[in-house]
Amino acid sequence: MVDAVFAVFQRPNFLTFVIIFLWGFYIMITRYNLVKKLIGMYLVQTSVIFFLVSISAKKGATVPILLSVTEPVQAAGYANPLPHVLTLTAIVVGVATQGAGLALCAAIYKKYGSLDEQKILERIE
Amino acid sequence: MNYHLPAILFLLPLFAGISMPLVCLKNRHWSHPISLAVLAAMAVISVLNLHSVIQHGEVRYMFSGWTAPLGIEWVADGLASVIMVLLSVLGLLGVMFTGPTSPKALGGRIVHYYTLILLLISALTGIVFAADLFNLFVFLEVAAISSYALVGVAGGKALFAAFRYLILGTLGASLYLLGVSYLYAVTGTLNMADIAEKIPALLGSKALVGGLLFIFIGLGIKMALVPFHGWMPEAYAYAPDSISPILAPFVTKVALLAWIRIIYWVLNASIAIYDIPILLLVAVLGALAAVIGASLALAQRDLKMMFAYGGISHIGIILMGIGQGNQTGFAGGVFYLLNDAVMQAGLFFLAGVAFHQYGVRTIDDIGRVGKQAPWFTGSLIVVALGMIGLPPTGGFFGKWYIILGALQADNYVSVAAVLLATLLTLAYFVKLFEAMFRKTTTPPEVQFDEIPLSLKLPLGITAAAVMIMGLLSSPIVQLLLNQALPPSL
Fold it and tell me: In angstroms, how far is the first alpha carbon of chain B from the final one?
């Protein structure tokens, strides 16, 4: 048990990821305000992106641009560029989703005059 | 030339969709014929692609010539090519149907509406061909964002359904991405074939198990598997009538296809994780989905709601076929997937015609359609026969092969679940027909107009396809057995 707790603190990035993810998930399921739900969703997306970046961190490595063209490449000296590219794409996807979500929120507000899920459900009936 | 067909299939709707607002800036009425032309071209190219795959074997397409583990790879094998043909043909029928039924309130925004449809179709093409886990994620999200917008496009009740779909869909996508990053952390690669080579050495790894679990839950939300199906019926039922037939056949089924790819092509299907064989899990989840979905459909009175729950139940039947772990079951499952796509499209075409032409939303009103609508009633009967699974239709042979596969695997629970789901499907269609043909004392007071040709064609072609796929079931299943089987079977 104690070992398990210590093991968790060995990897602060995993801990941070779990906290942000669950926080966002909690906001998504408990709040009735639609914009707050979107904020929770954004936290969930960001936590996954954070996880992807943090597992690819490397000590003592530099940016993935060759330092010298004549010497053989030492892969250990360079950071892996792929996760960062993936992250960039995932951020773009997240922004697009947020945009669609906020547009829907605006349309819902225009139609029902409220952003509260329960009030909207009452007015739909 | 044949080598580039998968990329052309993807780029055609993408560029047409993006350039649509420019091309149709002055004349918005061009957007419908242009979309029709693009989809018709896609249908032809996808048939050519299938032909070339059958003749010369699978195509592994490398983007910009970068080879597999480094570059992004697409695979046009038998499975992907067969599904692609169906996707483009049903897309063509869907766009044809969209013409007269599209929401009138859109006005000038109709151009953007067609842009979204074309983007959705190009993203679905991408999911079908993608052989790279991250590429798959991007296309899943492009398809999902287009469908959120399309569900909410007409406003009203659909807005809230679209918002729910967005929240749940994004949660699913985030879980999928989380799973992919776990797998990337363990294997160091994203290419499916490359991961498949590295997995046998890593079977004990907890990160692998966690990653797969997240991927399965994420895709489970996307495919409306039973505990996660909450978003699907409302989104499909409240979406505009012109959109449901485009969303229903494929948006959930491509997520199922991605699941099949990961189970059979990335993992070796016969592996057990912590002593639980994954295929058994798939079959059990399928049995639950099939029975629960059909029971919920029985409780509905709204036509589109009933058909959407029917779709949930059929996802379960497909999973049962996939989960048997033998060739017969797999081919049966894929054959049923093809049939189900046609039947779902047909059902939502029917629901759209019912409202657009006859003003009918629920089964309480359907009695007044009666004998005045030969096209509507005729194709409803044929598609219903397919959904129930009576002999001359494709639905029967799909279920037949699934049950044969289950018997070969000695999996009697699956056999019982398929039969139970069939009985429940029969029950809700009997309910529908009872309401339709009930003897009413009052003569029908309204005289309905003739259905326009662009609505007749989708109805007629889907109904004919349900029959033809049944009559040609033996060559199609043989084709699937020869071309579409995963290497491990």
Answer: 31
Q: Of B59, B200, B41, which is closest to residue B131 (Cα–Cα)?
A: B59
CATH of A2-56+78-124, one of 1.10.287.3510, 1.10.3720.10, 3.40.980.10, 3.40.640.10: 1.10.287.3510
Ordered DSSP codes for A61-115: -B-SS-S-SSSPP-GGGB--SHHHHHHHHHHHHHHHHHHHHHHHHHHHHHHHS--
Minimal C-alpha gap between A8 and chain B (Å): 15
Task: Give pLDDT, residue A46.
Answer: 93
ipTM: 0.93
Which tokens is B234 given? Answer: 């409302």
In single-letter form, the type of residue at position B299 comes to A
Whether B70 contacts chain A with CB within 8 A: no
Helix (H) or strand (E) holding A27: helix A12-30
* Tens-place pLDDT, residues B16-53: 999 988 888 888 888 889 999 999 999 999 999 999 98
- Collect all residues with Cβ–Cβ distance below 8 Å to B479 and sequence separation of at least 6: B54, B78, B82
A55·B185 Cβ contact <8 A: yes
Asked if B214 has any chain A CB less than 8 Å from its own CB, the reply is no
Interface touch B149/A97, C-beta < 8 Å: no
Q: Would you call A101 and B138 a contact, using CB atoms and an 8 Å cutoff?
A: no
B275: left (phi over 0), alpha (psi -120 to 50) or beta: left
Banded pLDDT at A57 (limits 50, 70, 90): confident
Which residues between 133 and 162 in chain B have a beta carbon less than 8 angstroms from any beta carbon of chain A? 134, 137-138, 141, 144-145, 148-149, 152, 155-157, 159-160, 162
How far from each other are the two terminal CA atoms of chain A, in whole angstroms? 51
Q: How far is CA A14 from the centre of its chain?
A: 13
Residue A55 has pLDDT above 90, yes or no: no
Please state, as a whole number, how many other Cβ atoms lie within 10 Å of the Cβ of residue B479. 17
Domain locations in chain A? Answer: 2-56+78-124
Q: What tokens appear for B467 in the block?
A: 């029959």
The pLDDT, as a whole number, for residue B168 is 92
